[in-house]
Amino acid sequence: MVRRSYLDHAATTPVDPEVAEAMARVYRGVHGNPSSIYAEGRAARALVDEAREQVAEAIGARPSEIVFTSGGTEADNLALRGALKSVRNEKDGLVTTAIEHHAVLDTARDLEEHAHVRVAVVPVDGEGRVDPLAIAAAIDEKTGVVSVMHANNEIGTLQPIAEIGALCRERGVVFHSDAVQSVGALELDLRKLPVDLLSLNAHKFYGPKGVGALYVRHGTRIATMQTGGGQEKGRRTGTENVAGIVGLGLAMRIAARCRVVESSRQAALRDRLIDGVLARIPGAILTGHRRERLPNNASFVFPGADGASLVTALDLEGFAVSSGSACTSGDTEPSHVILALGIDRESAKGSLRVTVGRSTAAADIEAFLATLPGVVSRIRGEAAVPA
């Protein structure tokens, strides 16, 4: 039987056993609705409140600034749609970048088409970094929201959100950051960072799928996007997912506890992976910034190879990796992120993302480096054979 190495932690992470057990205790013993005022409801409400405090503490926020959602996609939608709806009689502009997650870019396109929002998409450089001055140039007096992700989900590049947030604050523009990939991996202190809205997602840091949160800085205007029972102070109605929220809060607390050791350990594995791939595979291209990137992310383009074929072949060898974003890996078109770096369309089809995690050992990296060159060579050879 082939030994498996899971190297796709950017797509999702395994649920931490401590988190799974905490959620199981909720399922077994806490069945009340948090909106109910009797004892069972109060017990559920206490768990939700505790988790809200855990999330807030981990990112330097107030508990009242945390809005629970069904995940990062809903948090992004609530941020953009809610913030723009709240100023629709005053401002109609949205500024974002070419490498945002589809949860932001597709929402922007939908707002442009159906809500008459003016959308400005700012390009990035060859390493996936956006220039804060380019963001500043795209802002006008009618811009309502700027949305720039903290770390890219495909290439791992970190954006200068402190600088961008500062210029947004100077212009009186709401600043949103999709931090789904960075929360849990990097220290984030929103008492210092000038960010008004920030999205996070539990399953990216060893929590459950189907639950996330949106940070809404005190005083930031945001309209609800669905009507109902008025939960989450009317900002996100619907009965709270108590077990999932408990899992989110505990996963954030564990991530904060592990981060100092794990981030540096994973960065060392990442660097070994990058150096090994570039040394062993002719023509390999590192995508993303060499230093300003997530500690666990190594991403490449292999011209002459097909990304989907690479993923399939590596799966048979026992390695779980992805070609670009997990949300688009079934698409035959090259990733919009890779194309935004200026890489040509044919080469961009050969993208591969490898992301390590808490369970990854040095032996996994060495085994991967021993396997990958042969896989790339074989697929390049197959690609060159006439049909």
Described by strand count, sense and barrel closure, the largest sheet is:
7 strands, mixed
User: What oligomeric state do these chains adopt?
Assistant: single chain
Distance between the termini: 33 Å
Mean pLDDT: 95
DSSP helix fraction: 40-55%
Number of strands: 12
Estimate the strand proportion. Answer: 5-15%
> Which residues form runs of ≥5 with pLDDT under 50?
325-329
Give the structural class.
Answer: alpha/beta
Walk me through the structure.
By secondary structure, the chain is α/β, with parallel strands linked by helices. Helices cover 42% and strands 13% of the residues. The protein has helices spanning 17-29, 39-59, 72-86, 102-114, 132-138, 161-171, 242-280, 307-316, 336-340, 345-348, 362-384, and strands at 5-6, 66-69, 93-97, 118-122, 143-147, 174-178, 197-201, 212-216, 285-286, 297-301, 319-320, 351-355. The protein has a seven-stranded mixed sheet with strand order 2-8-7-6-5-3-4, with helices on both faces. It has a three-stranded antiparallel sheet with strand order 9-10-12. Helix 5 runs parallel beside helix 6, helix 7 packs across helix 11 (362-384) and helix 8 (307-316) crosses helix 11 (362-384). Mean pLDDT is 95; it is low at 325-329.
List keywords for this structure.
single chain, 387 residues, alpha/beta, seven-stranded mixed sheet, three-stranded antiparallel sheet, 42% helix, globular
